[in-house]
Amino acid sequence: MLTDLHAERPQHLEDLMQWLRIPSVSSDSRRKDDVQQACQWIATKLGSAGLKVDVMPTEGHPLVIAETPPVDGGPVVLVYGHYDVQPAEPLDHWISGPFDPTVRDGDLFARGATDDKGQVLTHVQSVCQWMSAGNPLPLQIKFLIEGEEEVGSANLERLLPELSDRLACDCVVISDSSQYGDGQPAITYGLRGIATYELTVSGPSQDLHSGSFGGAVMNPAIALCHLLSSMVDSDGVIQLPGFYDDVEDLPEDQRDQWRQLPQSDEAFAKSVGVEQLFGETGYTTDERRWARPTFDINGLTSGHQGEGVKTIIPALASAKFSFRLVPHQDPERLTNQLREHLAAHVPVGVAWDLKVDHGAPGMLARIDTPFARAAEAAIEQAFGTRPVFIREGGSIPIVTRFQEVLGCDCLLLGWGLSDDNAHSPNEKFRVQDYYRGIEASARLWNEIANPPE
Amino acid sequence: MLTDLHAERPQHLEDLMQWLRIPSVSSDSRRKDDVQQACQWIATKLGSAGLKVDVMPTEGHPLVIAETPPVDGGPVVLVYGHYDVQPAEPLDHWISGPFDPTVRDGDLFARGATDDKGQVLTHVQSVCQWMSAGNPLPLQIKFLIEGEEEVGSANLERLLPELSDRLACDCVVISDSSQYGDGQPAITYGLRGIATYELTVSGPSQDLHSGSFGGAVMNPAIALCHLLSSMVDSDGVIQLPGFYDDVEDLPEDQRDQWRQLPQSDEAFAKSVGVEQLFGETGYTTDERRWARPTFDINGLTSGHQGEGVKTIIPALASAKFSFRLVPHQDPERLTNQLREHLAAHVPVGVAWDLKVDHGAPGMLARIDTPFARAAEAAIEQAFGTRPVFIREGGSIPIVTRFQEVLGCDCLLLGWGLSDDNAHSPNEKFRVQDYYRGIEASARLWNEIANPPE
């Protein structure tokens, strides 16, 4: 079957490029038809391989649920992924169009290449390959591929309890993260949580002349800057009351293990184009990214943004911002801390409004399971290197819910690289890693069903 | 002649509406032809009344220079104004189109209605009326109407020395400000200076995923907020080193005089739609607006500003901001203080770039002059109320240069109202004040040439 995988590579690449051409930006209401089309594409792909497929409507974008035939007494694995993508803006930073997938130097560039179309497709391809090769799969595989991961998975989260029988499994497998580094595959056993907000500060009923009114009227953009500045100090330590109450110290053995990973601050800084890295003192870069909570402003909007000068006191100023949380931090509790902080710090003469977007707690998976051992073996065979166990700074909001509702184990097998530009212009996925991912997936089914003695 | 003024009112209004229909936004390079057309309109108007007119090219938008015949032994007055306007954005806040002048409830709404087309046109109309009535003017009047006041008057400032013979005058008259309040005309004897900047903070070479990189890379939008916040405290006191060194205390007699003006903080707050006014403690609202320096953010731009959530660390964040200065504060010295402050406060991991836009010092005029007495009389006749002497918070960058280069007195005669929405949506000019301004101007020429005993 592995020979077959090699023979199928051109078709596998062509499939992915087809899917990437569909601009399925879930946050953009003008892209609704495209999102629907990306959903249909993967449903058709799964159906044509002989899986039982159901496209299930939600209040937002539909879910694709598919399954191979049940295997008596065999394990059940659920593969989760998503067919929606982040917005592609700023468009003028892309070398080739975000929805015009292009291979350059062994990398496939497109929005969604690594996050997550390319990665989830590795499992779809491996299962299709098993099915078409005529070998009965030694376990049952279910797929759950949603269209709202990039906007918080609220509908899936709501529907999950009533789907729990249908999605029942021993382990969920997700490929939506990265290898540790070039040539060093990894199994990810922890994710950060997330909480996203939009804060609007409003002052005068319209923009005012800064000469006639400056000194008399609070400037909403200054108020916004003061409020945002008050939330985090110059070392990146978050200043909300009680914010660190639920943050646990990292176990020393974990810190020791991570410090042995081949990490270089200098190379990291260079790869993102900054002179120096930044963050809380007392923690390594991996610790800060994987296991410490953080605050980031994602966007700022106020007043005159066009050419030239317009000397106004703007009527409005707003910011989109997000926190990354560690396990045990609760997004709802954070929202309360945030409201308390804003109420205490807002200056006179302006009003504020906080829009709470999505939130999800962080996640930790067990690594002493047969599934983790099977993944170790499958990855070593496909990538030629034994994987390391790491955490990830990003968030996959639904993962904790899978653990809670389905009571299953969890395997996060990232085939991407940390410089794949997920959420950024020129997102890419190494073609070689796509092929290796398909191979690792194909081997994984066997390793899970036939664990080494 | 005053009867003639009444008869001409419909034509005077029609003239102004014609001029306002031309969107002469000087800061917008796409509006270059419109700016040119607004220039031609006023040149033609002056020429058709028999003035000698010259449209003088500059490196930017042209100057209109015009003059009535010299009067042997009589005084010479220079009227200064501008035919360019501020940008009209945000467009969706206008009740009628910014370049579709519309009268509602006695107010004429359009961009430029009060700032400055409507106001400068009062003097043009009064002079045209004198000329067409066949009465020789008892003094010589020169006009200087430029197209770059809203972008800092840099070209006029550069050319002023070589134009000093041509513009030689005893007094410059400018109507580009406001009455003290409804029913209370004023003569303005002080203006604040201005300094405008754009600060760009750059971090990673492109937007980064806030999960994978948050905690490792300084967020340029946070850095920008910290930098801007560090420049001003929560009371509006500016924190740059040495910023207040050249700020003089207000004389107590001046403070006493201003405190007698009929000012109400409550009514002021209501008129701009805020619950409470704001500013440095220890100063009245008029003192803070007219005679204390201030800092305002005019615009903020960073990261994701569209619909929905995009959890990124933006590569760039920028702010447009401006200071209002009081007499003796030097914009160039401020730029140095600002650079020093930014260099001292910039966090690690980001770079900053400061673009210095235009700057101009504040201005104070003498009020014990025959010109001021003539203006008092003319205004009282036209408005039915004796004017009060006030200052203004806004800036007319070229005024100080007139005093220096032409060695003349200066009269700032504002016909507008402080709620005319200059620089804001729904800019307006009361039609009645336009007519009164024309009458006061027509009487002024007589009062200057024939001072009361």
TrEMBL record, chains A, B:
Residue ranges the record marks as coiled coil: none
Pfam families noted in UniProt: M20_dimer, Peptidase_M20
SUPFAM superfamilies noted in UniProt: Zn-dependent exopeptidases
Key words, A-Z: Hydrolase, Metal-binding, Protease
MF annotations from Gene Ontology: metal ion binding; peptidase activity
Start and end residues of each Peptidase M20 dimerisation domain: 189-347
Gene Ontology BP terms: proteolysis
Record's keyword annotation contains Hydrolase: yes
Alphabetical list of InterPro entries matching this protein: Cyt/Met_Dipeptidase, Peptidase_M20, Peptidase_M20_dimer
NCBIfam families on file: PRK07907.1, PRK08201.1, PRK09104.1
Protein name: Dipeptidase
Organism name: Roseiconus nitratireducens
